[in-house]
Amino acid sequence: MLEQFKRDGYIFVPDVFSAEEMDAALNAMERNFYGKPYPSWLEDFERGEQGSVGDGFTTKQDEVVGRSQFPVGDPALDRLIENERYLDLYELFLGDRPTYCNAHLFMRTGPVDKRYPDESWSGYHVDHNTNCVLPPSTDAGRFSYINSGVYLHDVDDDGAPMLLLPGSHTRAARVFGEGWEKGNMASVSHVRDIRKAGLKDPVPAVGKRGSALFYSSYLLHSAQPFENKKKQRAFWTLSMCRRDADRWTRFSNPFIYGEREYMLPFITQTTPRVRSLFGWPEPGHPYYTEQTLDLLGHAFPGIDTAPYRDALS
Ligand SMILES: O=C(O)CCC(=O)C(=O)O
Ligand SMILES: [Fe+2]
Predict the structure, then answer these.
(1) Are residues 225 and 309 in the same domain?
(2) Closest ligand 1 atom to the C-alpha of 221?
(3) Is the N end or the C end of the chain the one with fewer CB atoms within 10 Å?
């Protein structure tokens, strides 16, 4: 399994959770998002009596009945993190003891879902930036972290499975470097057109109830629309990093969401010593290479990378 994870940047592990656990978790998640079972929400929707529903990412409380960020307050959902095998798998794939970054409920509701790109070649991105502002290194094993999705029900081809690019976790650093050169980056984590990056043949992440999908935070992937718009897709998600990377990889850091607007300009202008107070590796750390410094220059326009460059061995 470790070999497969290292090669592909993701792996599906079936039967990590029992059918009973998943059914209880799905019921709880539906209560959280719809305030009722999904079939009943769908009936209301088809009668024109229901509007939008959140996906768990936003904090717009008018769209979310319950709380989507961990812990949500319902043991059927929160206690999924206690699964020993699940934690052992994390440890195996990370190659170190894990540290929590974030966990949340991720719902896509077919009839109202808009969380997919316009074109099949666009929308590919890495999730790394959610918990870490340091751009991808070619050393994925050491510096990426791992996201996982627990499948609360079967996800088939018509249920909007995620689209994964096998092996792209070790290529992201170079794809981004070239992307910046050629104007093929839509943001620090999004490639504009994967065809121009020589990437193709995405694999749909179909899976059975009770499986866990583990994928590298450097893995390029995208969303696709529901073929069957009456379906929903409910994941319990968790992100964890290596314990020896947890100073600069964590959700509870000052770089997240609203804070970034203030933090990123500050961190760009400040000194390496002060950056290290906020968890950045210091000059001389093996994260810094010509390659990562080049990407840092793009991610933090105006940053003085000289102190890091001078310390390259
Ligand atoms: O919903 C999906 O299939 C993928 C979503 C995704 O990649 C994201 O939200 O970061
Ligand atoms: Fe993503």
Answers:
(1) no
(2) 7
(3) C
Please give the full DSSP string across 27-96, using - where no structure is assigned.
Answer: HHHHHHHHSS-HHHHHHHHHTT-------SSS--TTT-SS--BSP-S-HHHHGGGG-HHHHHHHHHHHTS
Do 152 and 268 lie in one domain? The reply is no
Query: What is the number of the ligand 1 atom nearest to the C-alpha of 224?
Result: 3
Decide whether any atom of ligand 1 lies within 6 Å of the 162 Cβ: yes
Per the structure, the complete domain to which residue 149 belongs is given by 2-253
Measured from the CB, is residue 127 less than 6 Å from ligand 1? yes
Q: What is the mean pLDDT of the chain?
A: 92
What spacing in Å lies between the alpha carbon of 49 and ligand 2's midpoint?
31
275 and 306, same structural domain? Answer: yes
Q: Are residues 102 and 146 in the same domain?
A: yes
pLDDT for res 253:
44
Checking if the pLDDT of 61 tops 70, the result is no
31 and 44 assigned to the same domain:
yes
Give tens-digit pLDDT for 204-247: 999 999 999 999 999 999 999 999 999 999 999 999 999 999 98
Whether 53 contacts 112, CB under 8 Å: yes
- pLDDT tens for residues 285-308? 999 999 999 999 999 999 999 999
CB 113 near ligand 1, within 6 Å: no
Mean pLDDT of 1-12: 98
**Residues 6 or more apart whose Cβ sits within 8 Å of residue 102:** 69, 70, 130, 131, 238, 239, 251
Ligand 1 and 152: CB distance under 6 A: no
Measured in angstroms, how far is the CA atom of residue 217 from the centroid of ligand 2?
9
Q: Are residues 73 and 131 in the same domain?
A: yes
CB 54 within 8 A of CB 63: yes
**189 and 312 both lie in a single domain:** no
